[in-house]
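User:
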Amino acid sequence: MSGIAPAGDPVIPDYGQASECVIDNGVFCGDWFVDQWSTAFWPPLIDHIYMVVIAVAIGFIIAFAAALVAYRKKWLAGPTGIVATFLYTLPPLALFQLLVPFTGLTLLTVEIALVCFTLVIIFQAVLAGLAAVPDDVKKSAIGMGLDQRQLMVNVELPLALPSIISGLRIATVLTVSVATIAAFVVDSGLGSPILKAVSSPFNTQFIAAGALAILLAFVFDGLLVIVGKILTPWTRVRV
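Assistant: Predicted structure:
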């Protein structure tokens, strides 16, 4: 019965002990960050990675297919580029607002907007990479008996890979950044703790969430650099 407070006694919640850094609202309280990692930062980080990977993957599939078609049908390159550029120039919040009446405050709304921002970057990167393949290389390949499909798969796409990887890097870093704004639509991703911290005087949550978003962009970019070096070993001996 000792755990039950006598009737009439005040019930004071136990919030635990805070460090001096937390009490003084220091610039960054490492102990608080470690304590809150599993509940306040790890889940939003995973959600953020999930949002970025899905958006870039879908954007790559759409833009890559559109670029291949536009490369073969030259007249499609202009109109496709204009549409993709128009979607890219829309402010993220405005695009979210336009989509919400149709898809609601859902992850689908966020993903549609994020995909839209990746299209023009990847489309232009693929198209530029394919266009940069020297004509004499293509003529030599055709002279060796390669048909159009073999020329694309064995010659043009491998030579366009550095440009494609560069486009993917830019699109991925941009998506990591724009995904933080998604917190205005869904309570998910690193934008969620950032948005909550904006209305709080406590510094550590704001700094930690922002730093994680920046770090995530560097990690994604570094991984794509490594993938690019693995897929294009010939570029390392050019310099």
